[in-house]
Amino acid sequence: MTAGIDRRSASGADTGRDGIRRISTTSVADRVAGELLRLISTDQLSPGDKLPSEPDLARQLGVGRSTVREAKQMLISRGFLESRGKVGTFVADQESRRVPLEMLDVLLTMRRVEELHQARNILEVGAIRLACELATEAELAALDAHLDRLSQVDGDEEFWSGTVAFHSEIVRACHNTAIIYMFNSLSDAMRTDQLPIHARANVRADGVERHRRLLRALRTRDPNAAAAEMADHLAQSHHHDLSVLGTDRTD
Asked: What are the record keywords, sorted (predicted)?
């Protein structure tokens, strides 16, 4: 079988007749590799099947050809795909795999988490510095009220979405349109990629207190102190995510 894609909308995502989900144009190569792995693991792509050409995959998944090429090379190097030169790229036999399918999926997830952490550090540490200078008293009061509401939330998904919204409010308080725009794009990935990880083994009361520390640091109007608190906050969150993923690998 050779997978083809006929995009249609389903639950907010474009999905083809063969079950292939369209990748966002902001996705990186590991997410494309993850989609190909999903097709292999669900037998929608079987050993010996030929992949569509790079231009076709790029169009169908909504990414660039270089991203498709990088994803393919990642899977070729681990024995999931086989390049036959000008003939094309094919799904390899299971005996050729140098990394178990389940393990590679975890490694790809860890890479996404690491990249997301790096991006958040770049944006949020700088944003809280600016917010120390530019946030209004009304914005600080709104952040306080947000945490009061968050302490009453009963449900992991609602709680995590609420914490993302809290960080968004801090970023908006920096009053820099470019930073706000970039963080809005990043927050979508935070909700989809981090929620399944972050909600586990996480005590909501502790989460509220960690965010109150951020607000107290912001209220000092000391950019260095607030930046240090944000960096520590993000480091703790990242450590939690990696610990959960590490547990998954040993289960």
From this structure: DNA-binding, Transcription, Transcription regulation
